[in-house]
Amino acid sequence: MIGLIGLAVVVVFLGITLYQCVRIVPQADQWVVERLGKYHTTLNPGLNILIPFLDNIAYRMSAKDQMIEVKGIEAITKDNAMTQVNAICFIRVADPKKAAYGVDNFNTAVRNLVMTTIRNAVGGMELDETLTNRDELAARLRQSMDVQMVDWGLSLRTVDIQDITPSDSMLKSMEKQAAAVRERKATEELAAGNKNAAIMEAQGKKEAMILDAEAKQESAIREATALETLANGQFKASSKLAEALSIEGGREAMSFQLANNYIQTLSDLATSPNAKVVAMPADLAQSVGGLINAGSLMSVGSAVSK
């Protein structure tokens, strides 16, 4: 019986010793081993052999990317605007020894580093710049955090700014400012529209005045041409009349023609339905008689010449 108990104790002891001697590290893990309380080595994924009772697994590190989310970071911009920033970063353990012994708790350390770096970066930028240039702010964070995280055995994979929210009072001021900007733009657009309309109206009036002036000029030219044509016709008629009067018997022929036209005109007036009274000159008979005698003389003269 005692022998069985002793055998069982030996088996248990050997099992514990074997368990402490042989360790299998999972994929994407790294274990930090201490020997007699001092750093000894780092176990990589796979089968590893330790010295029982001397070697101890002090830290189990994950080689995967780890997400650290930091919310509600209060930061004051360069123009004294209060903001709340939410950020997220991904880190990876690059050196398990530094991550284990370089900082007490690297998750908390990274969180505090993100908060401090964001406050410093936002403090060097104005509010409009922080709201519109998140990529630039994230780049400043990466540049500032990389050096410090190397000392902790960590690798900064990426850091992003999720959102930046101004304070309530600042939001109200921004809304008023945006409303004022929209109103100003609307006023400018209305003024520009009125200006264009006035310009178009003025151009229309100008073109109408030009067309009217051109029409008047063309009408004046045509009227002058007509007057010139009439003057030329009258000049030619006067020349022919003077030529006719200058020949023998021309004056008598002209007098006879005038008398004939005068008598025809009186006849037309007398037969007109609108004519009620026809005024006759007192010396009409004498004048007509003289004209007839002139016509008779012209006829006799014509017969003698024949």
TrEMBL record:
PANTHER family cross-referenced by the UniProt entry: STOMATIN-LIKE PROTEIN 2, MITOCHONDRIAL
InterPro entries from the UniProt entry: Band7/mec-2_domain (IPR050710), Band_7 (IPR001107), Band_7/SPFH_dom_sf (IPR036013), STML2-like_C (IPR032435), Stomatin_HflK_fam (IPR001972)
Domain of life: Bacteria
UniProt main location, coarse: membrane
Similarity comment text for this entry: Belongs to the band 7/mec-2 family.
GO cellular component terms given for this protein: plasma membrane; side of membrane
Membrane association type: Single-pass membrane protein
Name of this protein: SPFH/Band 7/PHB domain protein
The Band domain, residue ranges: 20-178
Subcellular location: Membrane
SUPFAM superfamilies given in the database record: Band 7/SPFH domain
Pfam families recorded: Band_7 (PF01145), Band_7_C (PF16200)
